[in-house]
Amino acid sequence: MNPLKWVTSRLVILVPYAWLLIFFLVPFFIVFKISLSTTAIQMPPYDPVFDGTGTWEKIKQLSFDNYVWLTEDPLYYRAYISSVIIAAVSTVLTLLVAYPVAYGMARAPSSIRPTLLMLVILPFWTSFLIRVYAWIGILKPEGLLSQLLISLGLISEPLQILNTNTAIFIGIVYSYLPFMVLPIYSALEKMDYSLVEAAEDLGCTPTGAFWKVTFPLSLPGVIAGCFLVFIPAVGEFVIPDLLGGSATLMIGKTLWNEFFSNRDWPVSSAVAVVLLLILVIPIVFFQNAQAKAEEAGR
Prior knowledge:
single chain, mainly alpha, MetI-like fold, globular, transmembrane, cell membrane
């Protein structure tokens, strides 16, 4: 084997692993180390462990009290549950909006598909924060939506949407819609639509052909899009803070308060570690199940 080709093939494999090591595993272990520390009135606001002096003594001082505290205080598991529910509902709503859009793009003439793709990613050209602030101007009681509906005679009083979960759902669906549209479009665009025609020739109705052919073939894109929306939505901070108001309980806001208001870095690090496990463990199980299903199908 050509030595240069061998080195190149190894580099192709090593680069993503090096990326994960530097930007995922190392920060994770730093946060995990802080979560095993104790709070201190100093800078940094915790007692460091593994600082190069008295290593064995430091190991004996490691404490899991912060994780125990998370199970004892209802604030944290309520925040986890609320975050997962809001993220799950937002993911379903995003899928319901994104699938028809992606389907329409995939069935559109090939000459206009690049334009449609550009329109989907066009919101990314504007700051995420500015786009969320724009929704405040739309959803507040004296905002554009209420004024439009009142002028049309559809409502008599301003809508109370801002500072509710409905506003959070709207913000998440709008903000993460491209992350759902693009993978679904990618799956649908590659599909052989002669299979749909064959199903209809064999007696399937258009609706039946969609559910028996089109939707199953688009499932990889649907699953990828759901992951791309659900994972960041669980830890979302900006949208709940600006559109949901102070009463909204989500783990992203809880993390912010622990880090910057309470300055309790060990507890907030424990919250972050548990959040990561909540997201990673189901994904690992899903990937293992998918791999076993593929092996069984061969």
